[in-house]
Amino acid sequence: MPKKSAPERPKQSGDLRADLARLQTTLNHVEKSLSQQVRWKPVMLRSFLNGMLSVLGALAAVAIVVPILVWFLRGVQWPPLIDAFVQRMIIQIDERQRLPERQTPPAGSSSSSVPTIHDF
After folding, report:
1. pTM as predicted
2. Contacts of residue 111, Cβ cutoff 8 Å, sequence gap at least 6
3. pLDDT in tens, 59-114
4. What Cα–Cα distance (Å) separates residue 11 from each residue in 14, 18, 25, 68?
5. What is the distance in angstroms between the CA of the first residue and the CA of the last residue of the chain?
């Protein structure tokens, strides 16, 4: 069995103090960079705006895609089996797009301008 040789020693730098000074400078730079990145107010504001714009984009996409989809589904001649299903789907989409009509409050109750969950 061959003998294991001793691990090589790392090459020693000529000037240990210069290496330590460079290491300290690098660590200070890393610490400064990290402290600038962990400011929570700009991060929270950016995250909030990102979420709001994402929702707005999704709503706009739905507002554009659903009417185009309904228009397309109405214009295609479907086979009889599929036609009934597509017609039911179009009716459901149309019903859900309509705004619910507000109910009048019963006589004797106080009417407020703030809608409640029962108004819908």
Report:
1. 0.36
2. 105
3. 998 889 888 888 887 787 878 778 888 888 888 888 887 755 544 555 555 555 55
4. 9, 15, 22, 71
5. 85
